[in-house]
Amino acid sequence: MIDSGDTAWILAATALVMLMTPGVGLFYGGMVRKKHAVSVIALSFIAFALVSIQWVILGYSLSFGSDISGFIGGLDFLGLKGVGMEATDLTIPDILFMIFQLVFAAITLAILTSAVVERVKLSSFFILGLLWTTIVYDPLAHWVWGGGWSAELGALDFAGGTVVHISSGFSALAIALVIGKRIGFGEENMEPHNIPMTLLGAALLWFGWFGFNAGSALAADGLAANAFVVTNTAAAAGTLSWLFASWINGKPSSLGMVSGAVAGLVAITPAAGFVDPLSSIVIGAVAGVICYKAMLFRVKKGLDESLDAWAIHGIGGVWGAIATGIFASGAIGGYSGLIYGNIDQFIAQVIGAGAAVVYAFTVTLILAKLVDAVIGLRVSEEEEYVGLDISQHGEKAYA
Q1: Pick from 105, 115, 184, 384: CA 20 to 30 A from residue 329's CA?
Q2: Is 364 left (phi over 0), alpha (psi -120 to 50) or beta?
């Protein structure tokens, strides 16, 4: 039976998560040079539009169709066949569940743009984005949420720590290795051109994340309320821990502060339906520090994964998955973690996260090399110098 309260909440949560995708655009857009600002923000809008079509035609079926060998869903719901306004297993319409999952897939591709900003050819992004969503994201979603092998193993991922964040973070690392550094990286000034824009984007992400995590309860109930609280608490802990960690090495930057907030949000995502508020403080605080250290490591190695999707989403997602296996409380979501004596849950989390890292990185590396070999991932040196706003869109962010 459809419950009107549950339906109203998931409609609102879907809208909140949708807002996160342009939020990613603003978050990233402020961190690039001004000649690329339009391009970077546009990539997030393009990601949303591209996935919106792919998901309706094919993606939802591959993710949530009948299980095929634990790896991928069948074509039961091709073109949303049989996905209607009635409820099947939940108290919300099937078509609402479909679009709630759609906005998750869309923001995952938007996060991935971190690896290609200021140098990607727009036509190549379309092709790589479509391939990546179909071949990387959809199988991972099936593994975890669609009845695949990870779900059978017992690995937990309440709202997408593995499916969204590990996949996008480690895929970004793979693409960055293929596309190469921006011209002048490490030699020229590449400071963020508009930090207030990035702060605004972070605010939209924090706001939208309540729909991301609390909406994943798929009901307007106590579990959703708990997810809401631990989401906010972990974000606050991540904000402060990154801020203080960076303060030791210099000035406490606002850019680092909001990066810590996102790190805390990423880490609590898989655990939001399984841990209590005190545990979420630890999860968020640790995320802020380890993601900050990962960012420093990336800079030290001279890797131009431009906006740190790997350091924040990839590493934060791995920590969040493992932390779920440590702090999960049976009193919250019915599953107990390592501190409650359940080592099996911890092992399942490690296996699930590790498999996602290997699959996302390896397959994305192959896809990126393939697209690069066929049509090229990068714009020309002249187009990159002029800026992608003009060379790809014929526009300027600032007159």
Answers
A1: 105
A2: alpha
DSSP track, 322-347: HHHHHH--HHHHS---GGGT-HHHHH
Task: Compute φ and ψ for 72, nearest 5 degrees.
Answer: -150, 155
pLDDT at 249: 83
- Helix or strand (DSSP H, E) at 68: strand 67-68
Which one-letter amino acid corresponds to residue 335?
A: Y
Residue 314 has a pLDDT of: 98
251: CB partners within 8 A, 6+ apart: none
Match 């990066």 to its residue by tokens.
259
Check residue 330 and give its pLDDT.
94
**This prediction's pTM:** 0.97
Give CA–CA dist 285/242, Å, rounded: 8
Cβ distance 63 to 135 under 8 Å? no
DSSP category for residue 73: E
Specify the pLDDT at position 344.
Answer: 97
DSSP state of 217: G
Contact present, 122 and 99 (Cβ < 8 Å)? no
Dist. CA 272–CA 266, nearest whole Å: 10
CB 124 within 8 A of CB 39: no
pLDDT in tens, 231-253: 999 999 999 999 999 999 888 99
Tokens representing residue 398 in the block: 């600032």
Q: Which two tokens stand for residue 53?
A: 């079509």
Instruction: Check: CB of residue 163 under 8 Å from CB of residue 266.
Output: no
Q: Which of 21, 24, 13, 18 is nearest to 308 (CA)?
A: 24
- Residue ranges of the chain with pLDDT lower than 70? none
Domains and CATH numbers, the chain: 4-393 (1.10.3430.10)
Can you read off the two tokens belonging to residue 252? 């406490």
Amino acid at 148: G
